[in-house]
């Protein structure tokens, strides 16, 4: 019997990277999962079906676009209508854009704030009423070391992730008497498509080669000189869903190889 048997988890941005690892870890622990995110339909269907097969749970997929508040609310409604409840919400969908502030495209700013920050607000707002009725809930947002410190050329991302840190604390205080916890996890660099995709722009902004970006920018930030793994982040998210984590709320938990200790 898994610790999440009978529970349903909605994980935004779970077609790839950290979100997919969370969906898999939660399903392994017995939860039904609502997957979400972009990607090739055949690849998404393969991942969804593999989760159902491997863990004997239900896994459904929603293409809800996290830039659209009504689609975020529909994602939560889909979980409740199809799987009976949304007990766990992981706000994980995220994008990045790297550019000097004076060239930063306004539409990239808007998209990053919408997906990385506002979508979490809309999802929490939609999920909380039913969590309160059931008297149990876990809200986890994938923040970032960039919720605590800044790096040049990432104005929108750093602003959004700092916003997540504040939103997490506020929601935790509001829900403190409802047996619903709200926390965020702040990974350092995790080797996922999001990090890979930013390398060309970082090369251009910093006038560096690819290997220099990896060693002198990405891993330079992390004293361990190792990338965090998606499984490590998922494992912490799973722990936050356990009874042992019932008194952890409003926390911003770093998993960054010592980055923000420096
Ligand atoms: P990823 O690119 O592998 O995954 C991002 C997910 O978000 C994908 O499933 C993608 O389809 C989805 N997504 C993007 N735009 C969307 C939209 N409009 N609507 C719905 N889904 C959308 O990247 P990842 O590294 O796994 O990132 C997941 C989260 O972790 C992000 O919030 C990111 O900021 C955060 N994070 C990543 C790192 C890292 O180093 N990779 C570090 C700290 C925090």
Automatic annotation (TrEMBL):
<dbReference type="InterPro" id="IPR050259">
    <property type="entry name" value="SDR"/>
</dbReference>
<protein>
    <submittedName>
        <fullName>3-hydroxybutyrate dehydrogenase</fullName>
    </submittedName>
</protein>
<dbReference type="InterPro" id="IPR011294">
    <property type="entry name" value="3-OHbutyrate_DH"/>
</dbReference>
<dbReference type="InterPro" id="IPR020904">
    <property type="entry name" value="Sc_DH/Rdtase_CS"/>
</dbReference>
<dbReference type="GO" id="GO:0032787">
    <property type="term" value="P:monocarboxylic acid metabolic process"/>
</dbReference>
<dbReference type="Pfam" id="PF13561">
    <property type="entry name" value="adh_short_C2"/>
</dbReference>
<dbReference type="InterPro" id="IPR036291">
    <property type="entry name" value="NAD(P)-bd_dom_sf"/>
</dbReference>
<dbReference type="InterPro" id="IPR002347">
    <property type="entry name" value="SDR_fam"/>
</dbReference>
<dbReference type="GO" id="GO:0003858">
    <property type="term" value="F:3-hydroxybutyrate dehydrogenase activity"/>
</dbReference>
<comment type="similarity">
    <text>Belongs to the short-chain dehydrogenases/reductases (SDR) family.</text>
</comment>
